[in-house]
Write a structure and sequence with these properties.
367 residues; two-stranded antiparallel ribbon; 1% strand
Length: 367
Amino acid sequence: MIKKQKLTREQIFFSTFLGIIGNIVYIHTWISNDTNRASWLASFAGILAIIPFALWLMYISKFNPEGTIFDTIKQGIGKLPNCLLCIIFITLNVCISATHINMFAEMLRVFVFQNTPAPVFMFIMILIVFLILYSDITTICKLIEVLTVIGLINYFSCFVFAFPKMINIKYIIPIFDTSLPRLISGLIFMTSASSELLLFLMVIVSNIPDPFKHRSWVISGIISSAVVFSLAILIIIAMMSPEIAKRIAFGGVNAARLISVGTYIYGLEILVIGTYQFIALGKIIICMYCSWTSLKRIFGEKRPHLQLAFTALAIFITAILLNSYTKSYFFAVFLGRYILLPFSILVLILASISVKIRRNRTGSVAK
């Protein structure tokens, strides 16, 4: 097997971070009615709960360090089942990116470009990503690293001006104003929605040097995303109250509009919109790259740029068919609630079986 390009610790860390911070920036409000003030806590614990699955995936990958999870499945249980899994995998990534770009385009249309049709933003974003993916994986992950850093600086440089005058402790205390079953329900939803990361790791694991040995690179990215995302939700609740925060879309942008700096600057939403833009760009890069890589597993390396164009077109057509924030929101909730984690577990089980089959065939144990 051809030796893959290997990524650095920083590239894996930030790719993991952005791999989680995808559609949950919009659909986390789904759990607000159940969790109330504890939504930030459910988000924190829910994201951390993805760690065992990530460890499982990286353990499997040590038996085929130069291949993706789907390469491992192909070697164990055959080409046809692997192709079927790849088709589902591609479909999920297309749907994730289509829902995300729809919700981001609607945010731009509401706050910035009221008279510009949403499909215009979608086309521009997909075209940019299409051109970016002509680069190699190391360059792509360096870009993801830069996008993540700038996005974080943008977001928290905005909300630092909210302290202390706009933070109301009464909005976040008591923390537990819900029942334990409702809190657990919210936690499970956030874990399943965060499984977008597992889809990315299934492909990118072949670019991690000795994945299980360097599992801390991925784990630290998961922990950091849990801290940052839950902190962002906590700040929004502390500024707007849990009742208002759960009833409006784009809570971060709306909260930023309330912030003033001195006498002349009122509203810093442009910084938060910039953060959402960097997240959207990074997420579409990840989803399109995963879809493209899996497409090449089905059809081989013949005309890879044509396959990339097909992937971009599939995302654009799906986004156009949705063309609605509401439809995209509920579709993303459906994927996060019922599809992503069960599919990921199925793939991990099949990969584990494949490793067992390979070991039985060869009679050797990988060290």
